[in-house]
Amino acid sequence: MSRFTIHGTVDRMLSSDPDFRFMALSDLHGELQRDGFLASSDEQRKLCSSLRGLLQDSSSEVQGLAMRCLPALVTKVNPSFACDIVDSLVKHLLDRSTVGVGQRSDDMSRLGAKSFRDVASLGLKSIMIELSPGKPVSQAIAGILLPQLLNGANRVDHDDVQLDCLELLHETLLRHSESLMSAHDDIQKQLLMVSLATRPMVRKRAITCISDLCVSCSRPIFDEICAFLKDALSRRAPKDMNQTRTAVLTLSAIAKTCGYRLAEHLPDLIVPLMNLFEENEMKDDEELMENFLHALDSLVSRCGHRMSPYIDRLVTLFLTASTYDPNYAFAGEVDNDGVCDEYDATMDYQDDEEEEEEEEDYS
C-alpha cells in the first residue's frame, strides 16, 4: 500500500459517510492479508487510532469489518502501537463509564456501556487468538493484559466484567502461558480464590483457567494447587459442599488437560476422592457425581500403572455408580432382582385389581 493510499484510507475512515468508512476498511482488510505490509511510524499510529474509533461505529457493518481488521493490524504494526490498542480496550472493558478514544458523540448516544464492553471483549479475544506464541509482540501484549485481567477477575461487584476477564484469561493462558512464567505464582493464587466464588459460572471459568495454567506451570506451583485440592477434599464441611465441589471439578479439569502430572499426588487425592463417594456425599448432586466419574476416568487413562493399587476399589465404586439411575429412584429397598419392594407391592396390588375386574366381567 503506497503512502498516498494509506493517507486516503485514513481520510475515508474518518468520513461522516458510513459507506466511505466501510469501503476504507474493506481496502485495509485486503491489504493486511498480503505479505510485506509497509507503513511509516506516523501512518501506523494514524491507522491504529482511526480503527480504534471505528470499533465503536454507529453502523454495525462498519463495526463488524473493523473487528475483522483489528487482529491483522495488531500483528503488522509496531509493538508499541499494538500495546496501545490492547491497553485502551482492556481499560474500556473494566470501566463501565468509559466511551472510548476517538468515539463520535452521535455514536455515544446509540451504544450503551454494555455494548462497549462487548466490543472490547470480542476485540481482545480476536487479538489473543491471532497472536503467535513466543513472538515479542505477543509477549508484550500478554504482559500488559495479564495484570488487568486478574484485577477484573476479582471484581465481584460486576459479574459480567468478571466473566469476560476470566474468558480472556483462558485464551491468554491457553496460548501464551509459557511467556508468563514469572507471573504464574500470582496467577494461581488469585485463580484459586476466584474458584471459590458463589456464582457457578464464575467458578467454572476460573477452574478452566487453572487447568490451562497447570499445563506449563513449574512443579512447586503445581504442588501448591494439588495441596489446595487435597485440603478441600479431606476437610470438607458437611453443610457446605461448595469447596468440595470446586475441588472435584478442578481435579477433573486438570486430569483432562495434564493428568500425567497428577501421578505423584495420587495417594493424597484419589483416597479422599473415593471416600467422598463411599460416604454418600454425592447422592443428591448429580453434577458432582458426573465430574467425580470423569475425574476417575481421566486419572485411570492418564496415570496408568500408578492407579494399580486402587483398581479393585475403583471397580466396586464404578459398579455401584452404574446401578444408579436418577430417572427411576424409589424409596424402598432393592431386592436381589434389582426391583424396589414398594414397586413390587404396588404392581401386585394392581394385578389383583385387574384379576377381580376380569372375574366380574365373566360372571
TrEMBL record:
Protein's UniProt keywords contain Repeat: yes
One biological process term in Gene Ontology: SCF complex assembly
Key words, A-Z: Repeat, Ubl conjugation pathway
Keyword Repeat belongs to the record: yes
Superkingdom of source: Eukaryota
InterPro entries, per the entry: ARM-like, ARM-type_fold, CAND1/CAND2
Annotated protein name in UniProt: Cullin-associated NEDD8-dissociated protein 1
Lineage: Eukaryota, Rhodophyta, Compsopogonophyceae, Compsopogonales, Compsopogonaceae
